[in-house]
Structure formats: structure tokens, C-alpha cells
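Field reference: sequence -> structure
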Amino acid sequence: MTKNEMIYEGKAKKMWSTKECEDYLIVEFKDSLTAFNGEKKSEEVGKGALNNKISTEIFHLLEKNYIKTALVEMIDDNHQLVKKVDIIPLEVIARNIATGSLTKRLGIKDGTVLPFTLVEFCYKDDDLGDPILNDEHALILKAVKDQSELDYLKAEIRKINEILKDFFAKKGLKLVDFKIEFGKDKDGNILLADEISPDSCRFWDMETNEKLDKDRFRQGLGGVKVAYEEVLKRILS
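Structure field:
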């Protein structure tokens, strides 16, 4: 597959149509780092390739566990071939341990293991700051077709969470929380899309609670690339 026209550029990725098939897109993973809705920016050479490899491995794992995804194949270090989907304008978030915005909003002590996995939705709108939505908000905004579609997204992220929690625990990592996106293909099937990587997940070392994700950039801890390399190393081990 070869690139045709760039149809989208976001904070971390570019998307290109392909010359060979209108049903596929080529995704290019960038080396950009952003936080706080783009207010903090930087570059980390090699970060895009690491996210591509990590996300590809995770999507393959999920496919083996009967999760339908938009991934077709990894083309090279920085590029994936994916099925073209219409993205549902919701970030779907699973939280296993309280940290970040959850502790600020609800006053739960950082590091508290939640009594059950919390599922939240954020509306994908940079101008609004990606606000948190309840079910009724999502329906009013027509982000989904109906309640059954919302219920499907909740059930799917819970399945994904259980698969990944177990997998990463065996690799010595706590899956603290993560966000994912879904899209609909031309036949209306809902597929897991976008990426799952240290940009979109929080990983803590099981023994030391060392952060091995984008919080290293958010909090100015340094060692971003080294952390991402460690995550990939453990995935492949």
C-alpha cells in the first residue's frame, strides 16, 4: 500500500488515504509528545515507532481474544495499515487505580485501588476540552445511536480491560487506566480503533510503582523513551 492524500493530522498521528483501496488508510505515528490538551509539547525521537510496535502487539493480543479491531498490519516502524472507520466521538476510559484527573475531581487518594473498574466517557472536542459525559449527555449529543450502543462500548472496554490487566500483571506491570476509541466500518460494525500505547495508558511497575507511560512527560520526570522501551521489552518477553 502507498500513501495518497493526507486526510488528518492530530497530536500524535497522521492519516493517509491509499492509492490501492478506498477502504484502507495508512497511519503514521509521530514522535510528538503533547499533554494538557496540547498546552505542553515536545519531540522524542523514536517514540512514534515504539508506540506503533506496542499498539500493534496489543491489538494482535486482543484479536486473539475475539476483540474486533481496525488494524490490518504494521507496514514499517512508523506506519500501520488500518481499515477505514468513522470514529465514534467518545474516548472510552477504564480506571482500575485512582490517579490523575480522577483524584482531582473526586478527592480519592492517589494510588487507591478502585473497588471495581470505573468506565467513563469523554466527548472528543478539543474546543470544549474533551468534557466528561454521562449516558444522557452522549445521547443528547448524538455521539452514539442509542443506549444499546453505549452499553456495547462499556461491555467491550471491560472485556479489553480484563484481558490487558491479566496480560500486563504477568509482565510485572499494573494497568492503572487507559483510554480507547471505537469506529464503525462501512458495514456498521463497531471496531476498536486508534491505538493502545503508553500515550493512552498508565503503566506502573508492579514492585516499585515506577511510572512507565506519558506521565513521565506530563510530570517532567524525564526518561520517556526509556520507559516506552521497557514496556515494549516486557510485552515481547
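Note: The CA atoms of residues 59 and 145 lie 26 Å apart.
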